[in-house]
Amino acid sequence: MKFRALLTTLALAVLAGPLAADETELGAKMEKMGGAFRALRRQISDASKNADSLAKLAVIRQNAEASAKLDPAMTKDIPAAKQKEFVARYQAEMKKFLELTGKVEAALKANNNAEAAKLVNQLADAQKAGHKEFKKEDKKK
Ligand code: HEM
Hints:
This protein has six helices and no strands. It is an all-alpha fold. Helix 2 packs antiparallel against helix 3, helix 3 (about 50-70) packs antiparallel against helix 4 and helix 4 (about 80-110) runs antiparallel to helix 5 (about 115-135).
């Protein structure tokens, strides 16, 4: 029934609206990194895909650079006196993350996929550590 389908679509739009509005600008950059990173992990050992892997890495790097300029949503939840230090630590972690992406890039350009794969595991570790420390939902766990 067409009318029912229309109603369902409308209901979903009404429900999804506030959910989407909940996402932060930083969250949106992270989502973009997420898509590229999933693909990168799958193909990092495949030398025939190195050109595409470099493109995925560029997406990660650009969004990480933009992320470094934004404050984590959690900043507002910690005492005012500690916020500056919290953001400085976040920025330092992001800087390290960006340096790692540079190393992956160099390994790929040298067609050293074994090294690139190792470094991508380090990116995953940095993601985990970064989320544990700076991402609201993960901090609670
Ligand atoms: C491969 C690297 C990474 C990937 C793929 C990734 C992916 C994601 C994803 C998918 C989210 C959820 C976005 C949403 O809210 O919808 C997220 C959130 C977040 N990530 Fe990452 N992340 C990475 C590295 C990092 C690093 C290194 C840090 C910190 C140094 C970090 C800090 C955060 C924070 C703070 C949030 C919560 C958003 C906010 O506070 O507004 N992430 N990330």
